[in-house]
Design brief:
heterodimer; A: alpha/beta; Rossmann fold; four-stranded antiparallel β-sheet; 10 helices; 12 strands; 40% helix; 28% strand; B: alpha/beta; 21% helix
Chain lengths: 251, 426
């Protein structure tokens, strides 16, 4: 599914090296988690994969089912099946959430040569999926993320993911700013999407989210590299002992 | 003070060879207006009020030749309304709708002016004359003196359908001068639609007398003719508890100067003046100049103007709120914003507040910005291509102005026009 090889990335403006050779392979249907201290490069990895400006790839590769992600525009990556759930979802005043969702769904369908969804069909699907995430019709009508609470924003991200049905989902600190109940709701939304053909990369600081979204593989990232990988027990180790031991061990 | 010689010369040259209508019931008003014009002289670039907009195209003796204006697709179709058509600035009975609206009396200026007496006698040129202080508006004085046609509307009840003044040009260049009067009597209501541009160069004055408890909605899509050179003046006087909402949509246009001069004379009145314009290229210059005077208690006014500019287009906003002594509890709001789609375009704004009452809430703001990179990336990361995403965000920027239109169907029609424009210009 996702194959990242020796990926090296600089921050364009500061000429600063952030990723220093990341290797990561995620098989179809698998859930991988990346944990790591602040500044280790976790969010940068998610932005580089989704095509945000401001980063310069200085080496390595990232492919999705063999297609070179780094050569694509952000919208092409999305159409190819990549989805990033933002750590800080963007507020867009003046664009209704429903309009936004329909535009996105139909843009991807068009890019893949599929028929656009009719307004009626779209409405039916979105209502059903919104209900599962406890997103009411008012939230669908309001401008994208404007006036949404932290939890509502994250649920809105998961709704987009559910509507777009990507094959590779990257969740960037989706648990940040969530209380326990909201996190459960978000995790349920994610778990409902788990399937054989769909993979997840869950970026998080805390083991807490991983209690709800059970990972197959856990990676520890530090200083721009993945320094250790293991099973779910690795997340528990971090939770109990912090990163210091692991970092000392690999240093 | 003697008028500077260049102004005298420009005014003389402008009037030379023009056969101004003598007028029937408007005769005295026309003569007064001509005196006003001679005293003020035509505007020149050096005038403070024209600092951002060169009036040369509007004050040249003859309009600069331009291609015949583009014939717009009809707008507001399928809507029940009374359509009054002006072709090349002349009322076109054949193209206009027959019939009447209960509680609405409509006369054509060119016909009414054959008589010495008319209900509009006390109004014609009156609001224009009052609007000359404290700022000269010479092109409006010229209009009162020279208008060859227009519509005189008196509304005595709640009009069952809108009156639609539709302008069109048949092909030849024309210098069109139209003067409309809209008198909305106490408690009456009217929606007035004004669409298109009647000639290569156009000067339109609207005098709106809105009596106590009356409501006037004015929606004006000015079309998308590139060669348009137009000066409009909207003069409105508002009685107690009356309401005016005026919205203008302008696409393209070589030079457009839309002035609105609003006098809040009765207590508890409300006036909203708003506009959206989109321009592409160096041959686009659009100027919104607004002057709202609060001279009564508890008045509410809003000015909301949004401009989308690209490829060297220029947008201007001059907006003023004047709160006279005693106009307590005034709530005045003004916002002007531009979205610059590239580094070549320019937005020039002069927001002004002048307040002589001590218990008022007035605010103004003016911003200039580009499309939000964050929002653009967010949309693209969801699969929306850059062009579609940019257009979506541009429409979103204009949405706040469109919200000033009370009628959703009218707002939707304008939104469709804007969407079409954005798709053609990106």
């Amino acid at each position: 599914m996702l194959e990242i090889k020796n990926l090296a990335v600089d921050l364009e403006e500061e000429d600063k090296s952030i990723l220093k050779g990341v290797d990561l392979t995620i098989e179809p249907g698998m859930v991988h988690a990346i944990m790591g201290p602040n500044g280790s490069g976790k969010s940068t990895l998610s932005y580089v994969l989704s095509g945000k400006d401001g980063y310069e790839v200085t080496g390595g590769s990232a492919t999705l089912d063999g297609a070179d992600l780094l050569e694509m525009e952000p919208e092409e990556r999305a159409a190819a099946g990549l989805f990033l759930a933002f750590q800080y979802p963007v507020e867009i005043p003046g664009v209704g959430n429903m309009t936004f969702l329909r535009t996105a769904v139909n843009a991807q369908r068009k890019a893949r040569g599929e028929e656009e969804l009719s307004a009626g069909d779209f409405l039916k699907v979105v209502r059903e999926k919104a209900k599962a995430l406890k997103i009411d019709s008012d939230m669908l009508k309001r401008p994208v993320n404007v006036g949404f609470s932290g939890g509502e924003k994250k649920r809105n991200e998961i709704l987009q993911m559910a509507m777009l049905e990507p094959k590779m989902c990257v969740l960037d600190e989706t648990d940040s700013g969530l209380d326990v109940d909201a996190m459960k709701l978000v995790a349920e939304g994610v778990n409902a999407l788990r399937s054989e053909g769909r993979s997840f990369l869950v970026i998080t600081h805390y083991q807490r989210l991983l209690d709800h979204i059970k990972p197959d593989v856990v990676h520890i990232m530090a200083n721009g590299r993945i320094v250790k990988s293991g099973g779910p027990e690795l997340a528990l180790e971090v939770e109990n002992n912090g990163y210091a031991d692991i970092l000392a061990e690999v240093a | 003070m003697a008028l500077p010689q260049p102004k005298v010369d420009a005014t003389t040259a402008y009037l030379e060879g023009r056969a101004l209508p003598k007028g029937g019931f408007t005769k005295a008003a026309r003569a007064d207006a001509l005196s006003r014009l001679s005293a003020m002289g035509l505007p020149v670039r050096r005038d403070e009020y024209w600092r951002f907009t060169n009036p040369a195209l509007l004050t040249a003796p003859l309009p600069e030749a331009s291609e015949p204006l583009r014939v717009d697709q009809p707008i507001f179709t399928g809507m029940d309304k009374l359509r009054l058509v002006f072709t090349d600035g002349v009322f076109d009975a054949e193209a206009s709708d027959d019939g009447a609206i209960d509680g609405v009396e409509i006369t054509r200026l060119a016909e009414a002016d054959a008589a010495e007496i008319h209900w509009a006698q006390g109004l014609y040129g009156t609001l224009e004359a009052a609007g000359q202080k404290p700022v000269d508006r010479p092109l409006a004085a010229f209009n009162t003196a020279a208008a060859t046609d227009g519509i005189l509307i008196r509304v005595t009840g709640k009009a069952a359908k809108p009156v639609h003044i539709a302008y069109r040009q048949s092909g030849d260049d024309a210098d069109v001068v139209l003067h409309h009067i809209i008198k909305v009597e106490a408690g009456a209501e009217l929606t007035l639609l004004e669409t298109g541009t009647p000639g290569a160069r156009t000067n339109i004055v609207l005098e709106m007398d809105i009596a106590d408890g009356a409501t006037l909605h004015h929606v004006r899509p000015q079309g998308r003719a590139h060669g348009r050179q137009v000066a409009t003046h909207l003069f409105a006087r508002l009685g107690a508890e009356s309401q005016l909402k005026s919205f203008t949509l302008s696409m393209n246009g070589r030079l457009t100067r839309n002035e609105a001069v609003i006098e809040m004379n009765g207590d508890d009145a409300s006036a909203h003046v708003a506009g959206a314009c989109v321009g592409d290229g160096e041959d686009f210059h659009h100027d919104d100049t607004v002057f709202v005077t609060h001279d009564a208690l508890n008045g509410e006014s809003r000015q909301v103007f949004k401009k989308v500019l690209r490829n060297g287009a220029v947008g201007v906003f001059q907006g003023k709120i004047l709160v006279k002594a005693g106009a307590q509890k005034t709530d005045g709001y003004q916002i002007s914003q531009s979205l610059l789609l590239d580094g070549d375009s320019q937005f020039l704004a002069k927001p002004e507040l002048e307040i002589y009452a001590d218990d008022v809430a007035c605010s103004h703001g003016s911003t200039s910005g580009a499309i939000s990179e964050e929002a653009l990336f967010y949309l693209r990361s969801r699969g929306v291509d850059e062009k579609t995403a940019t257009n979506l965000l541009t429409l979103a920027f204009l949405a706040e102005a469109l919200e000033e239109i009370a009628d959703d169907a009218l707002a939707d029609a304008l939104r469709d026009r804007l969407e079409g424009w954005l798709n053609r210009h990106s």
